[in-house]
Specification:
This protein is of the alpha/beta class. It has 22 helices and ten strands. The strands form two sheets. It has a six-stranded mixed beta sheet. Strands 2-1-4-5 form a four-stranded antiparallel beta sheet, covered by helices on one side. A hairpin with a 2-residue loop joins strand 4 and strand 5. It starts with 11 loop residues before the first helix and ends in a 31-residue tail after the last helix.
């Protein structure tokens, strides 16, 4: 079966043609049927003029056989109409199937690439490519089949003129190069403006996706008008390129309209001269005039060429996605006796030429709870992503129970490391499906146990249909959504649980209880917590203090708490500028920041 992932990275311009070929190969049987139907329709159209001419000659001669030829003409008209209807249905279904195939393959590839795809292209532009550009590229098979038939029409008409009289074909062929130049100029000029048009569409889609995601911030700030203006900033460029496309196509149509009638008139005039010299019959004159129209009919070709240019340009944008390499996994398994020991060895991650994580060395012992703290931009979330291989380091190595993460089998890796995020995506048809996401054999008892551990069971039972309530119909607060994300993590057996600020929206008491549940987890796995609250850091076995992408200190919270700069991370500086250490005698539970902060 043809797959979408063919070969490694290459330039989009070079890659779009193989992508179109793959799409055509996938639609091979339907394309073949469409081409045959289109050719049959073209054949009926080409047969009609000669049949009409023959019928006219017989009628003028009073031949009784003329009625049979009139019946043939009627049959050809009916056949052309039926074939045209079948061609329309086949083209529509072929476009739909090819578009669906492209989207399935590209969505799989984007998911295989992982978060890097969203980082590079942005969610809005990704959606624009997977929806709009995939639909345009999906028209390539039907357009290619129709183009073959569209070319067969003029070529067949020229052959028919030659069969009637070689001089008629010669007169037409004298001006045919002009029509070829018109089509060539159309293909060349259309490509650039279609590319710019689609890029402007992508920028608008990207801005719209950002605005939808931040609609509450926009409403609170009262910046709706400015946001609309920012989203629609590429609109003049979109309008310019749209008008340019119409101008290019209109110019091509105008040139064709100027050249085609001259060619038709030349053929008809030559046929008239041959008729006066009795080299042609009246019926052959009629047929020649019709074939001249068919031979010069580049209007259909202009439409098909424009469609193929749009499909090719869309395929170039899709190929940019294909050229983004997917995450490669190994085949190794984790040792059976491992309990989640995580090691980061000289890990460096660069973004925009800057080292966001710089030669980080870190060990999370098996069964331990390690909190990662630091100011905003210190690299905490990126470290959490590296720990679970949601992104790969540019330098260095990450190991789980002694096995480098890139060498692990994908299923092994995703079963062994579980994530919970600050803003979890609630995927699934119901709340129960959301919690069970990723669980191999979910049982209702396991789902409810995980919900209780995350303190989500109470509010879930109060929903209209309890655990069967669709997430879209569940009025969830930020903290409730976060607890569902935690329940999803608790429902899976893992060696390493990574919480990326997944407790930030919880009240202090709920956070305390959930942290208790984490520390009492019977699985024996280790835990890596991105923490902003002092209470979370205080209860961890070890705290890793990140500063500007580097590990500044590692140790128990009670030891680090003696450092004034560490206390400042949690907002413990007094209004007069002096340091406060409102804590118990051993400094473990500072009272100055019960609600957390310092984000």
């Amino acid at each position: 079966m043809t797959t979408l992932s063919e070969g490694g990275a290459r330039s989009p311009a070079a890659g779009s043609v193989p992508l179109l070929r793959s799409t055509v190969r996938y639609s091979g049987p339907r394309c073949t049927a469409l081409a045959l139907v289109s050719m049959a329709s073209t054949g009926a159209t080409l047969s009609l003029p000669i049949a009409l001419g023959r019928a006219l000659d017989l009628l003028l001669a009073g031949d009784p056989d003329s009625s049979r030829w009139v019946s043939w003409c009627a049959a050809l008209v009916l056949a052309a109409a039926v074939l045209d209807a079948v061609e329309t249905v086949l083209a529509g279904t072929t476009n739909a199937r090819a578009t669906a195939w492209l989207r399935r393959g590209l969505v799989r590839h984007v998911l295989a690439v992982g978060p890097r795809a969203v980082t590079r292209f942005g969610p809005g532009d990704l959606v624009a490519r997977l929806v709009g550009n995939a639909a345009q590229a999906g028209t390539a098979p039907a357009t290619a089949a129709a183009l073959v038939a569209a070319l067969a029409g003029p070529l067949g008409a020229v052959v028919a003129l030659a069969l009637i009289d070689l001089r008629l074909a010669a007169v037409f062929l004298i001006g045919a190069p002009l029509l070829a130049l018109v089509l060539r100029a159309l293909a060349r000029d259309s490509s650039d403006c279609v590319t710019r048009y689609q890029r402007a569409q992508g920028r608008i889609a990207g801005g719209l996706a950002e605005a939808v995601a931040g609609h509450r911030t926009i409403a609170a700030a009262g910046t709706a008008d400015r946001t609309v203006a920012r989203i629609l900033r590429p609109l003049p460029e979109l309008s310019r390129q749209g008008h340019r496309m119409w101008h290019v196509q209109g110019r091509a149509a105008a040139r064709a309209a100027a050249v085609a009638p001259l060619l038709q008139l030349s053929v008809v005039a030559t046929a008239g001269v041959l008729l006066t010299r009795q080299h042609l019959s009246v019926g052959e004159l009629l047929a020649a005039s019709r074939y001249a129209v068919l031979a010069a009919g580049v209007g259909v070709l202009v439409g098909q060429v424009s469609g193929l240019v749009r499909a090719r340009t869309a395929a170039e944008r899709l190929d940019e996605l294909r050229c983004e390499p997917s995450t490669v996994y190994g085949e190794r398994a984790l040792p059976p006796a491992g309990s989640g020991r995580l090691e980061l060895r000289s890990v460096t991650v660069r973004r925009g030429g800057r080292a966001v994580l710089d030669r980080v060395d870190l060990v999370v012992p098996a069964g331990a709870t390690v909190a990662v703290v630091g100011r905003s931009g210190a690299g905490k979330s990126l470290l959490a992503a590296v720990a679970g291989r949601l992104t790969d380091p540019d330098d260095g190595e990450v190991r789980l129970d002694g096995v480098p993460l890139p060498e692990l089998d994908r299923r092994q890796l995703r079963r062994a490391i579980v994530h919970a995020f600050e803003r979890p995506a609630l995927l699934g048809e119901s709340v129960e499906d959301t919690i069970a996401l990723g669980v191999v054999r979910p049982s209702p008892a396991r789902i409810r146990e995980a919900a209780r551990a995350a303190h989500a069971d109470g509010f879930v039972r109060r929903l209209p249909d309890g655990y069967a309530t669709p997430c879209a119909d569940a009025p969830l607060s930020g903290g409730e959504a976060q607890r569902l994300g935690l329940a999803r993590a608790f429902a899976r057996d893992s060696r390493l649980l990574v919480l990326d600020d997944a407790l930030s929206s919880l009240d202090t008491l709920t956070e305390h209880d959930i942290t208790d549940a984490l520390l009492r987890a019977p699985t024996g796995g280790s835990r890596l917590l991105v923490a902003h609250r002092v209470t979370t850091a205080a209860r961890a076995d070890t705290v890793v203090w990140l500063e500007r992408g580097r590990v500044r200190a590692v140790g128990p919270h009670t030891e680090l708490w003696r450092t004034a700069e560490y206390r400042e991370l949690f907002g413990t500086r007094a209004p007069d500028g002096t340091d406060r250490m409102d804590a118990t005698r051993d400094g473990t539970v500072p009272q100055a920041a019960p609600g957390g902060g310092g984000r």
